[in-house]
């Protein structure tokens, strides 16, 4: 989660502390995101925007990243099903 928060900080508008269309368009290429059309950027914002404000707060961003990343989604499932006996953790991870 700390890595997601760092990514959020790199993309967020420093004044609003949210990821806006403009901050994503300006900061995305600086951190290595591929060039995207305005439509793609707007779609990305609206896909994660849980409040309908046209911007992502840290919570929205983290939820969006977990939903769209198979590795993060699998890790989240593992954390939700964390066994008391950690010897089976690998089996749980690969069988989800």
From TrEMBL:
GO molecular function terms listed in the Swiss-Prot or TrEMBL record: calcium ion binding
**Residues of the EF-hand domain:** 16-67
Give any Pfam family that matches: EF-hand_8
Which Gene3D superfamilies does this UniProt record tie to the protein?
A: EF-hand
Q: List each coiled-coil range.
A: none
Superkingdom of the source species: Eukaryota
Which PANTHER family does the UniProt entry name for this protein? CALCIUM-BINDING PROTEIN KIC (PTHR47319)
UniProt-recorded name of the protein: EF-hand domain-containing protein
Q: What is the lineage of its organism?
A: Eukaryota, Viridiplantae, Streptophyta, Embryophyta, Tracheophyta
